[in-house]
Amino acid sequence: xxxxxxxxxxxxxxxxxxxxxxxxxxxxxxxxxxxxxxxxxxxxxxxxxxxxxxxxxxxxxxxxxxxxxxxxxxxxxxxxxxxxxxxxxxxxxxxxxxxxxxxxxxxxxxxxxxxxxxxxxxxxxxxxxxxxxxxxxxxxxxxxxxxxxxxxxxxxxxxxxxxxxxxxxxxxxxxxxxxxxxxxxxxxxxxxxxxxxxxxxxxxxxxxxxxxxxxxxxxxxxxxxxxxxxxxxxxxxxxxxxxxxxxxxxxxxxxxxxxxxxxxxxxxxxxxxxxxxxxxxxxxxxxxxxxxxxxxxxxxxxxx
Length: 304
Prior knowledge:
Elements: E1 12-18, H1 22-30, H2 32-35, E2 41-47, H3 54-61, E3 66-69, H4 76-84, E4 91-95, E5 99-101, H5 105-115, E6 119-127, H6 144-151, H7 154-157, E7 178-179, E8 187-191, H8 192-198, H9 210-220, E9 224-235, H10 255-276, H11 283-303
Parallel strand pairs: 1-2, 1-4, 2-3, 6-9
Antiparallel strand pairs: 4-8, 5-9, 6-8, 7-9
Helix pairs in contact: 1-3, 8-9, 10-11
């Protein structure tokens, strides 16, 4: 792999958006130093008006963090963009606060990005606390067919087949490097020069779908997106939203915030489809897609 050239400028900017994840954010920040061996870096935390003393904790325990305090919940896209406009690094890492980065993982990811021609975005192995892969870390774009196979559970009947189980790219081994359509914002590494061409997060997406949309635009600009298991994070997924059973014991999300998370997740589906697919498919398929999203929303709300 190529040696990273730090030059005389900041090598890496790490951007984290926090919302009521104080305890996990502290662990995340502690994990950054052993994960960034040989790299100079800066860290921005944009806090979306947390009510769990996140800002006080950062000021007291991590005075080296560049804290941006919002007086309201701006959502994921807008909050990230606040920091991305200020970031000075050659490399940009979008990182979730409910993650713990493993030793040397950021350095390995930067080296991977440098050594692969045409790479615009690199993600790592995102592992849930139970040791399983978080499937959202490497996925295909959600075409109507892939979405149908995923939500109808056809993918479970024909696992690891490209035809039926490509929504989460299960036909490819998660033990090897490979190209993907999209990764998740839990760990998204790019270069500042690439981000200038791709553009910042679309602020129409409040809490979900923004990473998928950014990856789509990266592909439109001709960039490749890679997954590598050489780098790894642990992801305590869903702490802020309260929607995931894997982090149910850690979340402080209220019933109302869970309902909003459900609403935003399905709104993001509609927005992504309208933006990237609606003009490519006939009316009947589009109608079926919107009906399916409506059913998913009602089902998820019934589980809150």
